[in-house]
Amino acid sequence: MTDLYKHLGRRAILPLVSPPLLTTRQAVVTSDLQAAATTDIPDLDNVQGDVIYIFPKKAEDFVFFRINDATSFRTALQSFKPTTANDVKNNLDLINAAKEKAYNTRSSVQIVDLAQYQIAFSRTGMYFLGVDEDTGDVRFDKHCMSDDKKFLGDQRDWDSIFVKPNPDPVNGSVRDDTGALHGVITVAGSSAETCTKASNDVIDLFGSSITVAGGKPMEGRGRLGANKGREHFGFQDGISQPCLRGVVGHHPGQIEVDPGVIIMGYPGDPVRDDPTIKVKRPAWTKDGTILVFRKLEQSVILFEDYVQKNGLRWREFIPGGDISPPLTKQEAEDLFAARLIGRWKSGAPLATCPFRDNQDAAIDANLNNNFDYVVRDNPNISQYEPSDYYCPFTAHTRKTAPRNLYPYIDAKFLESGSIVRAGLPYGDEVTDQERSNVARNGDFTLESPRGLLFNCYMSSLDSGFVRQTVGYADNDYWPMTSLVPQKKGQDPILGSPPAYAEGGINNDPPLVVKAGNRVDLHLTGADGALYEVSGFAKAVTKNVAPPPGADIDNPFFVTSRGGEYFFVPSVSTLKSWAGATTTSSKLDIVFLLDATGSMQVYIEKVRDTIQSLCERLVATGKWSSSELRFGLIAFRDHPPQDSTYITREYPFDSDVLAVKANLANLQAEGGGDGPEAQCDAFASVLNAGWNDEATKVAILITDSPPHGIGEDEDGFPGGCPLQNNPVRLVNRMAKLGIILHVLACEPTMSMDFSTPLDFYKAMVQKTGGRFFPLSDVDSLLGLFTGSILEAADIDALVLKNINEVSTQAKEQEATADDISKDLYDFLSSSSAEVDTFTVDDIYAANEQGDKNVQIWLNAEQIDDNTTSQIKEVTGFRLKREYRRGGTPAMSLKTQPISLSQVETVVRMCLARAA
């Protein structure tokens, strides 16, 4: 990994060279990856781009917005193309290649022009879009950041765009839309010009459907020249980041975390992993994350002044009190600043470079995180206890990214509090004139506003950002380094000025107290109320200045100017939200199960996989579990072939357990001759009680033909005894928008019968469905999932285009081919994408078979005219490699719509409009 990306310098987050699985959603139905369907690695094509690998950028705009109209917003959202984690990986490859080429040719680096996009929503914005189901993150589901302002320690005024007029610190105010932000679009560019243009483009895309908060994007810009990669205090930024196991390449010493610490739905996600939580996250949150944005204003001149005044005290706080040669004034100031941060400005860790900066350690990705806080070179300090010998406990990086707190804090707990940090500086560089003006007036508030547009990612607010802010940075007693609490002070950078009460204590007679004693004081406040103050006594040397960075001395150099919590949905969830106005919000599925003697294994497999099918469908974000209904139609045959039943219907039910119970009661037996009562099952489909608002899918699983299509040894060669004509019934399905899929049990269907293959291929085409070979019962779940998802996307396009297609056909007398070409051109130009399910063809090419399919496709019913045209197909129908079984490869990908799919859409539109 290091060699492959060596030209990307000290970047903390780099992709693995060969991740075990690049995408789980695309492979969810792939036969050779069936076992990996529950993989513990996030889907890089489904996670939005900044979250895992962080956008490579020199400029970044944050477009905060409110939605004016949900319908037009969703329409625009359909054309919004978020950058995925896989896209970022590819971008890093391009940048590395450009730098490698420049290095090898001794030429300047050719800039890779990039514009990258991400969109996230506040909880209030999600409600505005109609997403009412909780995410499972208790704080996010109740609180805006405005509600938590005091809790987070923010004591100064916020920028107006982040202020809600009616915050509720107790109950939260996410359901109060007044003054709320609905979302943020993050736009990252390889240059300021590229970023600005991309921001303008995305604002134009959403147009009047949104109002940009503050009237313009909030701009972050990387510093230039010698300050490249540094924030305004002058420190190299972004060096320390967590490494997601199985996704991110690991540098020596880098803290490793389970993917679920950052990405919802994977190991490490506290909601997923907590056995006491009964209600887990909804499936649509998988591959999503929480984004926290904070505008952090930095008082750079105040920081510089504080460092200059205290740098001269270096002998007070370095180990041993002196070094040789002595530090120069600048070295002393740099050391003092490094002890506030935990790193030198170069990025070198203080733990391994405790006295002077080390540029080699700073720029080497194998060294700049390869440290701990264990002291091994001093026999007077235990290697088994946390120590601040080289790096203060209060140093910013040690406070917020703690290490080595065993045995008091478990390493897994520390890991679970990790966040991925991103963002860029904002504001102009400090000028000499500005410094002179501040010094001349003695007023640090005259400094121009500048700082960091900070954003970070985690799967849980309380475990991540809140823990780091409240539990770590603002906590005087963190890190825990003893069984007895010891006050260490707050993070000198991100901590909050503590509220001190004015007054003193005259302890006469003097208290008998020693260092480490617990002391309980009872004080009377100005209001007459009695207060108890408890703590542990600490000896203080008289007439000695407080240690550098102590709360009573530290002016605190960073001021929060506000922010917000956002949910970053997965690409698939984003797509489902975008299509909410045109995609059916409900899904009805009927299984037509051949219940004759040879089919028991298939019935049992449907029973065993229906729960997983439901979970997979919900995981796409298209439907909630309550919007899915499953029905069953079992069929056998007519007497005298079978005397038990012809069909047995089970009504739609959204309770998967009830459906499984119905399946458990089904037993396969009987049947008589080869053909069975498929015709009667088709008739039952039409009367199954479909929801008019649902996408309607019927899935036939059989190893036999229906009566009357010309099969030898048919007990009813004239067709169904009840006159249920299957061709007429399927045409009626097409009219009603019921999509028929057929799963043909192979090799039985092709080797034991001569007629059904071509018949079923034609029937599914009439409805816009698909015909699939079922040569391996274990592939059922994959076949179900892929066929249903593609059908849902195709059905959505039918609903959206049926009026236009019908008008072209009736009023303009356009042919189906012409309509298909026009619609394909339009959808391609608008970058329309659909879930596309492919299965390798196991059938040998056969010209006569293709002719038979066309005859059945054009037929209106089964009659002598139709059957007389059907010719026998000679030779093997299966390819040689599949005659003894075998599972064809399957894949499901979201990709640009194809012409053949558009032709299916047009055929379905015309059938429904007829």
Automatic annotation (TrEMBL):
Task: Report the GO molecular function annotations.
Answer: heme binding; metal ion binding; peroxidase activity; protein serine/threonine kinase activity
Q: What are the VWFA domain coordinates in residue numbering? A: 588-788
Extract the SUPFAM superfamilies matched here. Answer: Dimeric alpha+beta barrel (SSF54909), vWA-like (SSF53300)
Q: Per the entry, which co-factors are needed? A: heme b
Q: Does the keyword Cytoplasm apply?
A: no
Q: Which domain of life is it from?
A: Eukaryota
For this record, an example GO cellular component is: cytoplasm
Q: Which UniProt keywords apply?
A: Iron, Metal-binding, Oxidoreductase, Peroxidase
Q: Does the keyword Metal-binding apply?
A: yes
Supply the NCBIfam families for this chain.
Answer: Dyp_perox_fam (TIGR01413)
Q: Write down the PANTHER family for this protein, in alphabetical order.
A: ALPHA-PROTEIN KINASE VWKA, DUF659 DOMAIN-CONTAINING PROTEIN
What name has this protein been given in UniProt?
Answer: VWFA domain-containing protein
| Native species | Suillus placidus
